[in-house]
Structure formats: C-alpha cells, structure tokens
Amino acid sequence: FQAEDGIRDVAVTGVQTCALPILRSALAPEFRVAPPAAPTETAYTAHGARFGSVGHFVEADNGGSFESIAATLRAAGLAWPVDSGLLVDDRGRVVENTKVVRRLDNGDHLGIVSDSYAPVSALDAFSALLGPAVAAGAVKPTRAGLINARAFIQASMALDPVEIVPGDVVVPYLTGVHSWDAKSATRGGLTTVRIVCKNTLAMASQEMAAHGFTVRKRGNDAAVRAKMQAAGEALNLIARQFQAMVGAWKWLAGKEINRRDMAALVDRIFKINADPARSRKLAATIDALVDGGRGTNLRGVRGSAWGVFNAFSEYNEHEAVVRGSLPEGDRRWERVLNGEIGTFNSRAQEEVLVAAGATREQAQRAKMDASALP
User: Fold this and answer.
1) Between β-strands 186-191 and 82-88, what pairing exists: parallel, antiparallel or unpaired?
2) Beta bridge partners of 60
3) CA-to-CA distance for 276 and 282, rounded, in angstroms?
4) pLDDT for 297-309, tens place per residue?
5) CA distance 217 to 2
6) Which residues on neighbouring strands pair with residue 213, listed in sequence order?
7) Share of the chain residues as helix, strand and coil, in percent rounded to the nearest 5
8) Cβ atoms within 10 Å, residue 18
9) pTM to 2 decimals?
10) Distance (Å, rounded) from C-alpha 309 to C-alpha 304?
11) Nearest-CA neighbor of 156 among 108, 107, 195, 114?
C-alpha cells in the first residue's frame, strides 16, 4: 500500500472496507504519526524545550513571549504545511471514501481519514483561533508543542499574574488544540490548566469542550477555515472582556458597599421590587454569603465590594433554585449554555460597580475597558 499524490479533498474516521483489518495491519508501520524535529529556531525571546515520552513542547523563558503564532510554532517544529492524497492498494486500486493526510515538507503520513475531512495545518488553525486575540494585544503566545499526536499552543493573558486579593490569583490561558488524524476536533477556549504533559492536555481539552469552541474538520477547506476564523473572533472578544473584568474585579476589591443598601441592590439585580417579602429573603441570603460564602476566608474579600459581587454570583451559580424536567445538575449546566448565568453575572457586576461608586456609564464601559472606572 502507498499514498498517491493528486487529490486534495479530505476527511474523517476509519477505512470503510471489508479489507480493514488487513489494511490497518499493512499500513501500521508506515502511517504512524512521526514526531516533528526538535526546535531549531530561536523566537523573539529565549525558550527552553521540554521533551517527554509522548511528545515535546517549547516555552518562553522568564515570563517572556514568542513574537507571533508563526514564531511559536516554528520554535516547536510544528509550522509545516499539510495536504491529502488518495490511498491505493498494491494493485493500484483506490480505497474508496478514504484518504491520507501527510506533511508536505517531508511526506510523513499523519493519519488515514475519510474523504469529507479537511486537512488544516497547525499554523492555519492556530492563526485563526488565537491570531485575532494576539493581534489585539489581549494575549501573548508562551507555549506550544506536540503531545500524543496533538498539537497545542497556549497564550497567556497580556497582563502579569493578578491577585484580586492576596491569595486569589488569576492566571488564565487562551488555549488551542489541533490534530490531523480525525481522532479529535480542533478546539479553542480559555483554560486554567497549563499544558505540560498528556494529562494536563486532556484536562485543558475537557475545559475547552465544556466552555470553549469546537470545530470539526468536515466539509470543504474554505468552510472549515471560516468556522475557525469565526471562533477566533469570538475568543478575541472573550479574552479582551476577561482582561477588562480582571481590572474591574481588582477595583471592586478596593471598595466597600454599605450593607444597609443591600436590599436596594438586591432589588436592582433581581428586579423584584414589587415583591418586598422575596426581596427581604434574598437580601438575607446574599448577606449570609457575603459573610460566609466560598472564598470569604481570603483576606480582603469579606467586607469588600468584590466580596459582595462574589456573593451574588455564588447564589446565581450554586444556590438559586432551578426547576425543570432535567436533573438539577443538567439544568444548572443548561443555564450556563443558554446564557442565563452570564447575563445575570454581567448585570450583577454592573450594579455592584455602581453601588461602589462608579457611574452607570463607567460601569457599562468597564465590561470592555477597566480604565473607565474612577
């Protein structure tokens, strides 16, 4: 069996043929994923290479960053182009519905796929997914590599690790994961996990599957790339908004809210001023979370406007009664997916900012620009 040049359309999963066991056996030595060469190019800042039994990665040293997505991937040995070709048997017969994805620079085979699979290079995928946020200055590339035949790249938020209050550190990553063998989709999203091994790669992938964007590489090349670009624009907006929110949270940590105003704040956030009894009950619940909710043991949380905002978001995400035909856990997850959680938390942040001394306009602008706060 051999791969044959000529056809550029591509695709997913295994070989649909009665000769599948024989085919796989014959091809196994030739079609395994070949690891890329060790890094050879020094990017914008010095980097160190880490190698393991399942792959390798490179990382900018001393908190620095790589010059660009392309420089990061070149340093990791992952900037090569890909293509696809027909799969034929030793008699020259084409194996139907099946193609081979390969590296164009050295011909290495990366996977056997169906003819609906679009081969996309790591450079194209990550430029689409992370490029807009990098270009906007919201994140900076810091790490990339190949682990378990999965390419990944991570960019840190373009700010130093931030402590909202002492002990409450925010160090998020904008992460992308990509493959060429149709065994996994291309994903992008904000993650808390720093990828250094196959376990942390799996954890980050799970975070992105739950909260990020998934692009399945099926269809023509242009359609798949358009999906990746759309996801990249959304990730850029999310990264910029998160960066602004961190600034707003830090501002809240330095402010106080008069607890006697809590009932009025509850009315504005929950929009229930027509139901005084419910308002008093919710105010008492939120008040209890301000004093004894999750994280109130950290110095600087209890008594601050940051602590008040956390009390509202904790109630929204963990304490609020949810109703419906689904189990409670599924219903809470549904509220995340349909935007209920995010909409409430956004309204709560705006109202708490106003209660802490910001004008309405400043509080609204702070969702994208924390420097708007007084």
Assistant:
1) unpaired
2) 47
3) 10
4) 888 888 899 999 9
5) 24
6) 188
7) 40, 20, 35
8) 8
9) 0.65
10) 9
11) 195
